[in-house]
Amino acid sequence: MLLNFPKSSTSANVLAWLDCLLIGLSVVMLVVESEPMYKKYFSDRDEDAHKLAFAANCIIMGYFTIDYVMRLASHPSALCFFKLYLPWLDLLSILPFYLELVMMVMGSGKESPDHGHDDKAYTVLRICRIFRVIRVFKLVRRCDSLLVLVRALSKTRSELVLLGGIVSMSALVIGSVMYVIENPKMLSKSVVHHHDDSEMIDSKFISILDSCWWAIITITTVGYGDMIPQTLPGKVGGRRWAALHV
After folding, report:
1. pTM value?
2. What is d(CA 88, CA 9) in angstroms, rounded to the nearest whole number?
């Protein structure tokens, strides 16, 4: 009751707010460490900022580890516990910290490849740190509205899979057609519009996969504008497909 139901008592409510506070602090630290102007202060163990952030992260992860162990110990069945998705999210947010800790102990004092750190180890270290953002999903346990949304999505997963399949098939068909229409190597120069009589416009529809990217962006009405049809048939088809999927 104390860990899973914040409204059951004052102590449970305090723990819920503490959980949210530590999650928010952890995410803020992750964002600040990624900023170029602050990155140099967090990349060297000799820097005070690195020591402070490391100490704060150890406290946060210590709290989350104790919380996870207590949830596991208090659950009636360990097998049923691991059948739930939230415990796995909690575990994925905890384990990278200990992997990062082991790598830092075994590695050098610098955490940047510019200071002689092994490139592969550095990459793994950065991936471990990015996994901290998974802690955001722990908020689902503390918010009734989010739990309702998750349950609703879970009950409609078959419909969502069907929708995803329809979008994927549409993107494949439209992307294939646009690849044929917009690929300049498969067209005569007379079909392609020219800004200049002596220069043909370069097309970004260089493969079916790239064309499928444009199709998905068009179907979902996002419209990044990074790829646009250059031919008259492509423009007409793009307008029709965009209007059709609205």
Report:
1. 0.60
2. 26
Lowest mean pLDDT among 25-39, 40-54, 120-134, 168-182: 120-134
- Give the type of residue at 51: K
Q: Name every residue whose Cβ is closer than 8 Å to that of residue 226 and which is 6 or more positions away in sequence.
A: 204
| Integer Cα distance of 213 and 220 in angstroms | 11
> What's the confidence (pLDDT) of residue 92?
82
199 pairs with which residues across the strands? 196
Nearest-10 crossing angle of helices 232-244, 208-219: 40
Q: Over 193-233, what HEC string results? A: CCCECCECCCCCCCCHHHHHHHHHHHHCCCCCCCCCCCCHH
Residue 84: which of 7, 141, 143 has the closest Cα? 141
Which tokens is 212 given? 């499928």
